[in-house]
Amino acid sequence: MNPTWTTGTLLGLAAGAGLLLIWARLPARNRPTLDDRLAPYVGAPTDHRLERLLADQVVTPFPTLERIVRPYLTKGAASLERVLGGGASISRRLEQAGRDQTLHQFRIEQLIWGAVAGTGAVAMSLVMLLRGYSGSPVLLVIFCAAVAVGGIVACDHRLSAAVRERERRMMAEFPTIADLLALSVAAGEGAVGALERVARSSRGELARELYRALADARTGAGLVEALDRIADRTSLTPLARFVDGVAVAVERGTPLADVLRAQAADVRELRKRSLMEIGSRKELAMLVPVVFLVLPVTIIFALYPGFIAISTVVP
């Protein structure tokens, strides 16, 4: 591409960005709405006030830069929520991941991921233009937009991966927690006392959930209701059965130690089956390098001396 065109393109982009910023900050476009003017006198928590309260919290490691771009992040997060939707699913996954993060903060994080990815794509496009890219500029624009969208989607996938990893840790901790509860109950502790002892002496995601359930029970909710919230915050079937067993034992006074030991044994058997399934898949994956790398090299080493001998004997 001609250097003159490249320089003109860069200057045009800079001028367009400046005009866009001036247009975005015009006083006519930033007038307070009727809800904002009435909110201090009515006291109703409108959506705009809630967004401002949430925006006051720092969500990035660069607080000064974040305060500068905070109004744009807040509006962009609200626009992203309106475009993507699915706020209920995001909120549930945030609870399942154990994050102290609101939906608005997660949308801001998604926006930052998309902005960083888009900025990297724009930098790569500028480097390609400076090195004489001869293709259509429309393809570069599409590439930058696709990378920005990919950053937003990658942030969402990262949340789903965090949920799966946390549930995996909870399943790994479940047999030990169940055995400790069974020992405490067999030693004469009640259900509440056993839960408090295990939650106080254990570390991990499941112990944290038990501690949260006990805190909910102390604030007025019943123990059964607090335990049911654990099952609602996770999608693990063994944990739901464990909560149901503890709830039934608390309500009806049935023996709890045997139920907990049986559930711990079931979870250990489930982990054994899952490990065997993972092992079988790994065996199939190991065949790929053996068949396509090791075996051809072995055949070549076995046949190459014969080919050399034949080529030297044949005149």
Automatic annotation (TrEMBL):
Q: Which residues form the Type II secretion system protein GspF domain?
A: 178-302
Q: Tell me what topology the record assigns in the membrane.
A: Multi-pass membrane protein
Source organism superkingdom: Bacteria
**What's a single GO CC term here?**
plasma membrane
Q: Is the keyword Transmembrane assigned to this protein? A: yes
Location comes to:
Cell membrane
Q: What UniProt keywords are attached to this protein's entry? A: Cell membrane, Membrane, Transmembrane, Transmembrane helix
For this UniProt entry, what is the primary localization, expressed as one broad class?
membrane
Q: Where are the transmembrane segments?
A: 6-24, 111-133, 139-159, 284-310
Q: What is this protein called?
A: Pilus assembly protein TadB
Q: What organism is listed for this UniProt entry?
A: Phytoactinopolyspora mesophila
